[in-house]
Amino acid sequence: MPGHEVLAAVSSGNGHSATNVIAGPATSDFVVVANRLPVHPADPPSRAWQPSPGGLAPALRGVVTAKDGVWVGWTGEIGPRDAPASYEQIRLRSVHLTQRDYEEFYLGFSNATLWPLYHDAVRTPTFHRDWFHAYRDVNRRFAESAAQVASFGGTVWVHDYQLQMVPKMLRELRPDLKIGFFLHIPFPPQELFLQLPWRHAILDGLLGADLVGFQVPGAASNFSRLARRLSGARGTTSSIEYDDRTVTVGAFPISIDSAHFVERASAPEVIARARQLRADLGDPEVVLLGVDRLDYTKGIDHRIRAVAELFEDGTLHTSKHVMVQVAVPSREEDAHYASERRHLEQIVSEVNGDHALVGQPAIHYLHQSMPMDELVAMYLAADVMVVTPFRDGMNLVAKEYVACRTDLSGALVLSEFAGAAAELKGAYSVNPHDLEGMKEAIRRAISVSPREGRARMLRMRRTVLRHDVHAWASSFLGALGRSAVRPQVTLGPRPALPSAGTASG
Ligand code: F6P
User: Fold this and answer.
1) pLDDT tens digits, residue range 124-148?
2) Which of 194, 256, 302, 343 sits in a 20 to 30 Å window from 154, CA-based?
3) Which is catalytic among the residues 184, 321, 364, 467?
């Protein structure tokens, strides 16, 4: 190409507007490919573009801006509308999804096959050939889009379980590129992965990358073992010989923009809001907090059961203790998610029926997403953060809570099955399937001495402040730079590619 495009103005819910408009070349040396773009449309009637929630977009925004990169992804809307060509200095390239893609690629293969399979099969994964075909076709469109915007010899960083076939497809289109892949969710042990009827295609897809990164070393060794067993690759956990190339494999635990959380947690208006929240909760002695996407992997129901039993046995009393559970709506068209919501709402209402006083619920349940400052105020208002997923790639909420506890108060109860458990050693570690163990951990967290509490928090804060999202990105990209040994390719005309970003049936 390279061409120039004039980029459209963006209006958003957070006051960003035409000042975000930049113009730039259509190609870049650095391309991020993720299922979601860092913007999505607000609900009708506005449909204005606003920043995407969730861990990935805030985590990568800074890296992409600094490298003047292009972000390839889906807007979250069905149909052919493009996202603006740039947003907050990030150039965007939209991949469109049809209704059928949404059902078969997103809700189907990504979230009803891979998601439960990769999370210890806590719900039975569904296997449908049509869903796999949709996954392959949508992955191809992402690969084609990335191939069109990456400069010669550039770096493309592909993200997450929705796009595992992209590395190989992209390598076939553009052998000149350095390709990295990072999986944000767990990678399952052999016993589970082997169930997947398309296991070879997924592994071969990943092996198209120069560097395949995971959250924890266990996931990396699951992958390398499977690659050797199923794809005929040779080598060790960290270095695999495959298809006359070396694929580097490793653990790169993701983190948060810690400094930004510290800054918001120190803002006077946020501190005042935290005080107000505690007052609104009736100035209890102890506030317990859970913050999760409403997902059956998060163990919210078990956590609430444990808290309910603590109210029953008198450890907790509504006059002194209160729990706040924020459950952010997610994937609501999926039957498992819909039934999980009904299930949770029934449990919360049972607990409140048994233990609430007039004007004082035992559990405050908020099924809504929350602006960042409100979330930070919640973290500041909470004495004990309870994070108990049955399985979680990392869990950034745990790290966010720790980053916000600038005065070293507060305690974290953390599932041993969250990736974050490997780093946050000052937490009270729990097996989320063990109700008695969870109750004991909550008891200990509530009654910890100030001295021990501060020592635990200090230990965790050191880790989170030192190892932030910027350190994560540089460590992945540094390893990618070292691992990618590019073949000799002749400079010549680009291969003809179908135009990317078109919706297909
Ligand atoms: O944890 C994996 C992930 O895809 C995150 O990147 C994202 O924030 C979250 O799950 C929600 O995913 P989505 O709403 O795109 O299905």
Assistant:
1) 999 999 999 999 999 999 999 999 9
2) 256
3) 184
